[in-house]
Structure to design on (161 residues):
């Protein structure tokens, strides 16, 4: 039976480990600001099925009938209907994207902007004092001292002067 926590024993403290959790402190090196554009994770596409079930049914029928397509006419028409429906949905999606009425429905049924729409708005209202792209991430600001090792580059290997 233990009357005290094993963490508080002398052995635990002698190992040099702290019994308190590690605390991470955020230090702002550069001012927090967004860029003038965002990158899309994926190319936006219409949310359509890929007709894999219909294609599997068609191939199963063709294998069953030793690739004779006459008995598999029903599965073939179902597959082609699915392909044409997907093409119509993709055309409607491209038209909505061209008009700019396209958005992504998020949680709660609210509609959000696509990355292309956000980039278009950011071109109209750019962030001030960002300079030209590509932006210098490790650039000393006027409020920072020359002597400060702001970006922790003091011990980097480089050209000896």
């Amino acid at each position: 039976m233990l009357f005290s926590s094993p963490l508080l024993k002398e052995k635990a403290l002698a190992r040099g480990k702290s019994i308190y959790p590690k605390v991470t402190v955020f230090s702002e090196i550069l001012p927090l600001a967004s860029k003038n554009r965002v990158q899309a994770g994926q190319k936006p596409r219409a949310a359509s099925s890929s007709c894999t079930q219909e294609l599997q049914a068609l191939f199963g029928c063709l294998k069953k009938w030793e690739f004779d397509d006459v008995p598999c006419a029903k599965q073939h028409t179902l597959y082609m209907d699915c392909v044409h429906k997907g093409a119509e949905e993709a055309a409607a999606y491209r038209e909505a994207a061209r008009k700019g009425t396209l958005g992504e429905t998020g949680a709660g049924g609210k509609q959000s902007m696509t990355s292309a729409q956000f980039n278009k708005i950011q071109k109209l209202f750019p962030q001030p004092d960002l300079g030209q792209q590509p932006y210098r991430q490790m650039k000393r600001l006027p409020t920072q001292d020359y002597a400060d090792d702001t970006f922790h580059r003091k011990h980097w290997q480089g050209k000896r002067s």
About this structure: Residues 68-98 form one domain.
